[in-house]
Amino acid sequence: MLRLTILTCFLLIVASSAAVNPNWYKNAVVYQIYPRSFKDSNGDGIGDLNGITSKLEHVADIGADAFWLSPIYKSPQVDFGYDISNFTDIEPTYGTLADFDRLVAKAKSLGLKVIMDFVPNHSSHEHPWFKKSIQRIKPYDEFYVWRNAKIINGTRHPPNNWLSNFQGSAWQWNDVRKQYYLHQFAAGQPDLNYRNPTLRQEMTKVLTFWMNRGVSGFRIDAINHMYEDIHFRDEPSANRTDIPKTDYDSLVHIYTKDQNETYEVLKSWRKLMDDHSARTKTDPKMILTEAYASHDLTVKYYNSGSTVPFNFMFITDLHNSSNAMDFKRLIDRWMKAVPNGKVANWVVGNHDNHRVASRFGRSRADEISMIAMTLPGIAVIYNGDEIGMEDRNFTYAETVDPAGCNSGPARYQLRSRDPERTPYQWDNTTSAGFSTNRKTWLPVHSNYKTLNLKRQKGEYYNHYQIFKILRSMKRRPVIERGTSKVEVYGNRILCITRSLGNDTVIVMTNPSNRPAAVNISSRELPPVLIVYAANVDSTLRPGTLVVTNSLFVPEYSSILFTSLNIYWSDHNV
Ligand code: NOJ
């Protein structure tokens, strides 16, 4: 009997540990869902959890391994969810905790992991902690960053020159507490004080709450804003004469960003998550860290436990007029910086930046995904980019994003993030199939009649079909673990080669307006390759045979070539 029990226990341990996949994230595709704009299930014009649940088949269909939900917590929506008034409840406009549980269960049944947005830097001004902090009720009195006014000639001034990301002073006077509080974003987003141990403890409880509800990781918002200089020193001027003094970029943020303590807190959260995974015998949690920081300070997050220190190079460093050499230099730099045992990541777009099709131009909409999905590591895709959605132009009167509104009518277009947040274009019916309501929280892009998922599903060749091809290619061992080489030909053609045994996959891009013929033949490459996919506007079509000693690359093209064996095995030739 005892032997039987021991055997059963042994089998149970083996069975549960066999189910754990420690490497699940290493070649993953992470899909960002912006909940307000994904799918509205109740006709109020705002996306919601049941809407997302009803569309999870799409997320599975495009081959995502995990999806990251921008904040769905209870929030007055000053910054559309990044201002949280209850870290452990759902915003009623989006649904309930029961809806969330159903979403997680369905995701699980489809093999999708759920990643929550975790916003540690600030809460909403409506959070009960903030209300108690105003009243100096312990322990909440120290949960936020409060400072006395500076009195100059009898007049009250903010304690220093720090600026908010959304324009103007980062300090807001509170008449009850008779002090200023810090807000690095909107005034409705008071900064939390990480020098307070009780606050730190509360935030670990938040992480545990969501892990217990089945989430597989967190995207950590604005992580490099968490700590500030203990002496509250003025920040130096960036000496910009082209922008107003109230603009965030007019200062160099040496005292409000990237402080060393941030990396230590992250380590403690990594441990918390690892312990949770070990205890519950579940896959390792993914941590994605959002820090717009220098390259060195970004990759430093790897060593504090970040799985994906967001690599924003396609957003912040490369643009429509970057040349092939710029791409090569930045790709090589990231690849070199990835520590042993960690993986690279490539962010194509997000809700804070113009859409990839608008940044690089319509004809190059597929190019960045092609590069991101062919390089080793994790690709991060913003919802809608898989069908080539484009920014919509907004008037100032239509603008709702605080970053845009606070910049005023002359400068809102430089800052507003509304253009990339318009509703997902599912089909050509009312409001692009996003909502039954004609009026949606942001207007639908007028191109939805022709640019929508349903249409692309029914056609032979378009952004969606290319994306699906890229996804299935990414699952191949040659992409998962093949060698990589990044080269530039004739100064203008970028060539990324992945090889493993007889398998070769090459991505070539020609961002210029002239076609090129390049000779890439070498002993390691097969002499003949085949076009597996090309960007939608390219004149080259899948199935075309090419010779490596005179490879024709049309203008504005991005082409995925493979060795013949890959093409034939996938097309049953
Ligand atoms: C980064 C988020 O992505 C952005 O949307 C938000 O406004 C700020 N952090 C503040 O939370």
TrEMBL record:
GO terms for molecular function: alpha-1,4-glucosidase activity. Residues 407-429 are annotated as: Disordered. It comes from the Eukaryota. Gene3D superfamilies: Glycosidases, Oligo-1,6-glucosidase, Domain 2. The keyword Nuclease does not apply. It is an enzyme of class 3 (hydrolase). It holds the Pfam family Alpha-amylase. One of its GO terms (biological process) is carbohydrate metabolic process. It catalyses: Hydrolysis of terminal, non-reducing (1->4)-linked alpha-D-glucose residues with release of alpha-D-glucose. InterPro entries: GH, GH13_cat_dom, O16G_dom_2. Its EC number is 3.2.1.20. Belongs to the glycosyl hydrolase 13 family. This is alpha-glucosidase. It comes from Melipona bicolor.
